[in-house]
User: Which sequence fits this backbone?
């Protein structure tokens, strides 16, 4: 058919996503993106609206690829928020250990480069982190700790998640990363336990 695109948009996004994931936004030139996707500069602009718009679509592609796994892990233990956090970190660590994908996390890498991103993309990265925080916060809700403590713990869990990605890119071993995750889960459990109200005694 005349005018029909001769490429798979999702496949092109996946390939471009890997370039951004490996190199970061600033070090991912259009030539590299074109080589990865098989598209010329004009086709990239025509299909995706330029490098900045392509990057934003790759962020969404990355988030949607892994969001379902995170949500399933966090929702699998509705009465046990500690186990939910453990399951969340298990999914994160399995992704980090997957040899078929680049090291680290596209969102974590992009967050570290936020000062060099255009404002729209920087805000988009922040929104994706906020979504992750909201997801974790919901999993922690079924506990006796107060809202303020749970808000702080959700931020902590997201921070540890991003740190795991950074450490993995720096060459930390799987055993080291799992130690970090285990200590993070212990911190969450201890914090919730300390925040539990004391039982009322009657004379």
Assistant:
């Amino acid at each position: 058919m005349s005018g029909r695109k001769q490429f798979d948009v999702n496949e092109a996004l996946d390939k471009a996503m890997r370039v951004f994931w490996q190199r970061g936004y600033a070090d991912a030139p259009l030539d590299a993106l074109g080589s990865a996707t098989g598209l010329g500069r004009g086709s990239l602009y025509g299909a995706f609206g330029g490098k900045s718009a392509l990057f934003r679509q790759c962020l969404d592609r990355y988030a949607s690829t892994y969001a379902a796994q995170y949500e399933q892990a966090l929702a699998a233990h509705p009465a046990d928020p500690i186990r939910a956090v453990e399951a969340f970190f298990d999914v994160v660590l399995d992704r980090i250990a997957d040899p078929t994908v680049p090291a680290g996390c596209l969102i974590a890498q992009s967050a570290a480069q936020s000062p060099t991103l255009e404002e729209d993309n920087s805000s988009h990265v922040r929104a994706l982190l906020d979504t992750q925080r909201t997801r974790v916060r919901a999993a922690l809700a079924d506990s006796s700790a107060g809202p303020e403590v749970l808000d702080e713990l959700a931020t902590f869990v997201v921070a540890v998640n991003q740190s795991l990605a950074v450490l993995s890119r720096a060459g930390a071993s799987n055993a080291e990363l799992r130690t970090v995750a285990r200590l993070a889960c212990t911190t969450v459990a201890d914090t919730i336990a300390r925040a539990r109200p004391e039982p009322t005694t009657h004379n």
